[in-house]
């Protein structure tokens, strides 16, 4: 979790998608959405995917119960959190609030 602490302590917003590979076939669509979000934000923000099955301790510590769960961090502080599907424009707008 030390790496996670370093990751979220960025002065740039960090959008994290907590997901599970077993969730469903729409994961490919989400991958494309996150790619669009990352492209739109460029180097102004970080966009990261974290597999909850491979990072169980972290997922439990953050009480990730649904998939996908999106969280925005900035300066080590959680700014926004939502469980459920989100479209690219919504995610971009949310992250831009913290630039």
Describe the structure.
The chain is α+β, with helices and mostly antiparallel strands and 99 residues long. The chain has a single domain, classed as Glutaredoxin. It contains four helices and four strands; from the N terminus they run αβαβαββα. It has a four-stranded mixed beta sheet with strand order 2-1-3-4, covered by helices on one side. Strand 3 (69-74) and strand 4 (77-83) form a beta hairpin. The mean pLDDT is 90.
Report a brief summary of the structure.
This protein has 99 residues and is of the alpha+beta class.
Percent strand equals 25-35%
Helix content: 25-40%
By CATH, the superfamily comes out as Glutaredoxin
Distance between the termini: 25 Å
- Strand order of the main beta sheet, please? 2-1-3-4
Molecular shape: globular
Oligomeric state of the chains? single chain
Radius of gyration: 13 Å
CATH architecture label name: 3-Layer(aba) Sandwich
* Main sheet record: 4 strands, mixed
Class inferred from helices and paired strands: alpha+beta
Give me the strand/helix succession: HEHEHEEH
Question: Can you give the mean pLDDT?
Answer: 90
- Count of folded domains: 1
**Could you name the ranges where pLDDT drops below 50 across 5 or more consecutive residues?**
none
Give the beta-strand count: 4
CATH level 3 topology: Glutaredoxin
What is the CATH class name?
Alpha Beta
Q: Number of helical segments? A: 4
Feature tags:
single chain, 99 residues, alpha+beta, 25% strand, globular
List the helices and strands and how they pair.
Layout: H1 2-8, E1 14-19, H2 27-41, E2 46-51, H3 56-61, E3 69-74, E4 77-83, H4 88-96
Parallel strand pairs: 1-2
Antiparallel strand pairs: 1-3, 3-4
